[in-house]
Amino acid sequence: MTREVVARAHRVVVKVGSSSLTSLEEGLDVARLHALVDVLAALRAAGREVVLVSSGAIGTGLAPLGIGGRPRDLATAQAAASVGQLLLMRAYADAFAGHGVTVGQVLLTADDLTRRGHYRNARQTVERLLALGVLPIVNENDTVATEEIRFGDNDRLAALVAHLSVADALVLLSDIDAVYDGDPRVGAASRIDTVRSAADLEAVVLGSAARNGVGTGGMATKVEAAFIASQAGVPVLVTSTPQAAAALAGEPVGTLFAAHGRRPSARQFWLRYASRPRGQVLLDAGAVAAVRERGASLLAAGVTGAVGEFLADDPVELVGPDGAVVARGLASYDARELPALLGRSTADLEPDHRRPVVHRDELVLVGT
Length: 368
Hints:
Its EC number is 2.7.2.11. By secondary structure, the protein is an alpha/beta fold. It folds into two domains: 4-268, Acetylglutamate kinase-like (Carbamate kinase); 277-365, Archaeosine Trna-guanine Transglycosylase, Chain: A, domain 4. The protein is 34% helix and 19% strand. It is built from twelve helices and 15 strands. It has helices at 4-7, 18-21, 30-45, 57-65, 74-97, 110-114, 116-131, 154-164, 219-230, 244-248, 266-274, 285-294, and strands at 11-16, 22-23, 27-28, 49-54, 103-108, 135-140, 169-174, 194-195, 236-240, 255-257, 279-283, 303-308, 315-319, 325-330, 363-365. The longest helix is centred in the first third of the chain and has 24 residues, at 74-97.
C-alpha cells in the first residue's frame, strides 16, 4: 500500500495535537492554526470531506487565566478547557470563514461512545454535518469529562471518530514527523516508512508524552490509535503538522499504517474498541472452542460463572478457564439470572431462558 491511498481518500479525519497549536507561555498560536486551516480548506476546495479532531482547549485557556503550567487537578483543567474551548472554536470559525467554510463543534466524552445509543447518535450527527457541507471539529468535552470517562488523549478519540464517520483515511498530526526506530532527539534513528503489522514495531521503543508541557499523548498513543484504525480498515498516516499538506497529497512523509482486514460493522467496532464492559461471563473450555473456532453463540451449558452486576444488553467480557479474555459481547440476561442457568442444556431450560447467553451476532472476538 502506498501513500496514494491517503491522497485518494474522499473523507479524511485529521487530528492535530495540543503541542502543534499551543504553548504554555503564549497559549494559542493563531499563525499555526491558520496554516493548518489553509491546508484543510484547500482539501475542501478540491471536493474532499474533512473531519477535524483538535486538541488544544486546555492549552488555549491557560494563558488567559494566568496559569503557568498544565493543571494537576481535574477542576482547574476543566476550568481552563471551558475558557479555551470558546477561544479555540472562535479562532477556527474565523479562520475557516475566510475560506467560505462553515464549521460545527462536536464535543464528546468517552461515555458518549461507550454507550451504543450515544455512539449511533454521534455518528448520525457527524454524517448530517458533512451532508450539509459543514466541517465538523471534534474534541473531548474536557469541561465535564471525569477521570473515569476520559479518552485520555485525542489520538484514540480520532481513531474512534475515523470509524464512526466512515472515513477513508486518518492523519495524525503532532510535533513529531514520523515513527522512528529510536529517539531522534538523543541519537541516530531511522524513520519507519510503513507499518503493516504490530510485528514491524516489536523492537521499537516509543516516546512518551509531548515535551512542551501542553500535550497528554506521545508516540505510543499515536501508534495505539493507528493500530485501532488500521485494523478496522482505515489507513493511517502519522506525521508532523507542518507536513500536513504533503501528507494529504500522498507525498513520502511520515509513517503509513497500512489498513488490513475488512472494515467491521459499527456494532462490532463499538464492541471491540469503544464499549466499557460491565462484567464478565466465565466459560468452560468447550464454550471457548465453540465461540472462538466455530463462531457459535454462547449457550448456558458452557457458562461456569458470572462476575459483576451487569444487566441484559450490557457489554460483558467472555473469559476462558485460563483467565484470558476470549470475546466481548452483549449479555442477554442480567447477572442475577445466570446462576440458575449455569451448565444447563438449552432443552432443560424454561422456554423464556432458551436464548443464548450472548448471541453470535452480538459478539466480537478479542486477542486475535
